[in-house]
Amino acid sequence: MALFDLPLDELHAYRSRSVEPEDFDAFWSATLDEARTHDLDARFELCADLGLTTVDVYDVTFAGFGGHPVKGWFVIPAGTTEPLPVLVEFIGYGGGRSLPHAHLLWASAGMAHFVMDTRGQGSGWAPGDTADPVGSGPSLAGFMTQGIEDPATYYFRRVITDAVRAVEAARSHPLADASRTAAIGASQGGGLALAVGGLVTDLAALAPDVPFLCDFPRATRVTDRKPYREIIDYLKTHRGRAEKAFRTLSYFDGVHFAARGSAPALFSVALEDQTCPPSSVFAAYNAYAHADKEIEVYEYNDHEGGGPFQHAAQLTRLPRLLKA
């Protein structure tokens, strides 16, 4: 696929037309206050007999939205005795936490690595273990329209709340240095990292890689590719519901979370990306509030983005920010 979005100079100047709800902060404050009425109950069970000698792995369970159990992995260098910087990672759309040996990079760099499973997902490309016990009104197959009738019932209200609680769970482990916490992720994981960056004000760093869930009004207009296409297909069937649907989506738009970003950030974007259009990524990047921000641009890539090249950039930048 050739370049299909705005030219790079226009992307650097682009601003989203997504309208922030007047009660955005109140909505999220109330949501997180309700979640915190449930005991976090973060449990870390050391895994044995994995065949891994350079890392220690913990199977994690904590209470997310509604007190529902959410799974994760906590991976640290073997024999760690002193608190380490901790990276909290969120997973791409359709994937789950997978198996422990899929998560060796950051422990190999001397950091603690907390991987959050995504409720209800984990069957598209990497296995997961977390159910979503909450139902939905009529929706299209996938997750983008589950509960879209109202912000209070929208699927990503639960997932974003889980993500904030995942940071709290990661920080609760005695070998995690809470003052040196970063949120990272690619695609959906990048969108969740942005949300966490807007809701957790004391992160040390953020690394949203080709982030999804940004600038819904434009993203749904410039790409035919799923997952954004799920929203348009829903509206094709439910004629006349666009205003209500986009109002709901505005509470979950990475652009608005980015406007509250309070940590140094390393973004990435791919200019041939039809899954997360470049303009939607730049909408979040250009809105990002912290002055210390960078974006790696992969001119000839689709949604795979920088792949190992972006990991290399993160391995240079994040340890410096986390003083690792």
Biggest sheet strand order reads 1-2-3-5-4-6-7-8-9
Determine the N-to-C terminus distance: 39 Å
Q: Count the helices. How many? A: 11
Quick one: biggest sheet?
9 strands, mixed
Helix content: 25-40%
Question: Architecture in CATH?
Answer: 3-Layer(aba) Sandwich
Low-pLDDT sequence parts: none
Might you state the CATH topology name? Rossmann fold
Fourth-tier CATH superfamily name: Alpha/Beta hydrolase fold, catalytic domain
Compute the number of strand runs.
Answer: 9
Q: Provide the gyration radius in Å.
A: 19 Å
Total domain modules: 1
The structural class is alpha/beta
Description:
- This protein has 324 residues and is of the alpha/beta class.
- It has a single domain (8-322), classed as 3-Layer(aba) Sandwich (Rossmann fold), CATH 3.40.50.
- Helix content is 33%, strand content 19%.
- The protein has eleven helices and nine strands.
- The protein has helices spanning 8-13, 24-35, 105-108, 155-172, 188-199, 216-222, 228-237, 242-250, 254-258, 278-287, 308-322; strands at residues 43-46, 55-63, 69-77, 84-90, 112-116, 176-186, 205-209, 265-270, 293-298.
- The protein has a nine-stranded mixed beta sheet, with helices on both faces.
- Strand 1 and strand 2 (55-63) form a beta hairpin.
- The longest helix is centred in the middle third of the chain and has 18 residues, at 155-172.
- The N and C termini lie far apart (39 Å).
- 52% of the residues are buried.
- The mean pLDDT is 97.
